[in-house]
Amino acid sequence: MNNSSQSTKTSIGIEKRSVEFIPLDERKGSSRELFGIWFGFNMIPLALITGAIGVASGLSFWWSVLAITIGALLGGITMGLHASQGPKLGVPQMLQARGQFGSQGAGLLTIIVLLVIIGFFVSNLVVAAQSLILAVPEISTVHAILFATLTSLVITTVGYSLVRYLSSVTAWVVGAVLLLIAAEAIFNIGNYPTITEAGDFTVAAFFMMMMISASWLIGFAPYVSDYSRYMAPDSDEVAAFWGTYLGCTLGAVATMIVGAFLASQIAAGDPLAALKENYGFTGVSVLVIFFVASSLVNCINSYTATLSILTLLKGMFPKLHVSSSIRISAIVVFHIIAFFMATAASEDFLTIFIDFILFLIYFLVPWSAINLVDYFLIKKGEYDIDSFFKAGGGIYGRWNGNAMMIYGFAMLFEFPFMNTSLYAGSMVDLLGGVDIAWIVGFISAGFLYYLTNKNKKQVMNYSSSMSSK
Fold this sequence. Notes:
By secondary structure, the chain is mainly alpha-helical. The chain has a domain at about 25-350: Hydantoin permease (Orthogonal Bundle), CATH 1.10.4160. It is built from 20 helices and no strands. It starts with about 30 loop residues before the first helix and ends in a 16-residue tail after the last helix.
């Protein structure tokens, strides 16, 4: 690339890179940094709300803990595998999707991912604002959302270095708060009959909580290479997997379990309200900390959203040089749109959020399966990275009809097994209300893609010319 010789600041300065290939001399990332980013990202009120869904649906605390843990362990595997691609390829995750779907096909998927990111970002804004308003009722919703939005805007403008740094700091601060809450529960467990009793169990509620926990992590799959691409290739692929997997899995499980615990204390099943009602000044202080933490780490969503927008621009205008001014303009536009969406969000937030996170996994698992099969089983990590940036998609073309058809078929296969408040498939009643659409989508997409591509030979063994730059 023409700009591959640009230097990027290793200290906390305005990031010069956008969606281009990261040269080897700028690969200063580490698995410890990835752990800090993803562990810190889960230290937010939205993760507490997510962990409380099982309890709010009638599941006991301990059954919720088991469902949360199994779902996170499964979802984290796909997330870690996607992260391991970053050091090898050195490009953002959704740009790499051009290797499976073609330049225009990947553009459609990038739009889906962008909608997912906006959903997460807006959800974080709404829950962060709820946290602050519970602590300080005098503050209006609009002002709380505005502060959280502006905080993310500033951090995202600076770029990767500040995102990485603040995520790690947040992980330590909020991690300590969660540890104190957990310690208090353990030492005073006799005062919490809701967690000492076995409680209720239904298969449908258990699998829903497990699916939500898994989809929380799978929802980050389009993000992960955006950060691991700053690591050196080859020797860091395994480290990228474990740094990402352990960071996000441990962070998600810890925060969601605390959310389930707090939700089990009050009839409303609201972990944020439980903090205020049961912990006095300490609980109010924790709510303020959660608001600040959510405002800080929400920049991970906006950072990836910006890369997705710039990827779309490069797809429409291949010769466009994505300068810092264009990158910052995309950041500003994204935050303006998100702010107005958050202020207009419905009060029935939990129902909307559950449906959002369920639909999220329906759309993402077929892409994830195709990407992983193509990377690990078909091409074995060898891509022509130069083609990712060519006007016609290079050797991958504009559209890969095979991949697009398989993605479409996998989505169709999912429909009979979906179970949401908006739509329930024909197989749901036969399965006792259990939603296995995500499992069907992942297996069918991966199997069909491998079956139709396993004997295809590459035109040549691509080890991109960029990898030596």
